[in-house]
Amino acid sequence: MTDISLANLFHSRSENSAPHTGDRMEDGSIYLRRRQGRDWFAAAEDSTDAQGNRLRLNFKNAAAFARHADVDGHHDWALPDADLLYSMKDAKDKGAFRGTYHIPQCTFLEGLNSGKAGAAFDEGRYWSNSTYTSELANDPDAPHVTCLEFGRGFTGGDVADSPAKSLIRLVRSEPVVRNKSAFSR
Predict the structure, then answer these.
(1) Where are the domains of the chain?
(2) Model-level pTM?
(3) pLDDT digits (tens, 9 = 90+) for 132-157
(4) Which of 2, 55, 118, 182 is most buried when burial is the number of CB atoms within 10 A of its CB?
(5) How far is CA 146 from CA 49, 65, 101, 129, in A?
(6) CA 157, 162, 164, 169 torsion: positive or negative?
């Protein structure tokens, strides 16, 4: 697919008339939000393997996958930071986002009662690229990575070099297109 810039997608839109969260773009991506002078887009679906199965990778492999991803004709994808990941969770039922995220079928408490609470949490958990340190961890100096379970909104984290696996939804951004005629008076 041809790389389509925002200037071409929104040639008649001004800075003040951005697309709406959940709008599907011509290139297949989904508009997420505007932040710090940039429009952010999410891939239309979770990253998958060659057979179409949702990828669950440890953080290091997820970050490497994002760096080399070619989705919707773009090569500038990344894992979302924690703020964008929360925006993605909040938008999970809006427009083209609806039904595209993996939400576990059992609740955390149901998983707890069946002895599978960790599996219930991990099943719908997505990586961010935001790291932090935790004084409560076994190794308080080890970098941890924020992850978020979309079904119930549980936030968690894993040591960056942990074998724990989570899902991947890629994001990319473009500078806001400024239409000079929209500001002429």
Answers:
(1) 6-179
(2) 0.78
(3) 887 776 777 888 898 888 877 777 77
(4) 55
(5) 23, 17, 18, 7
(6) positive
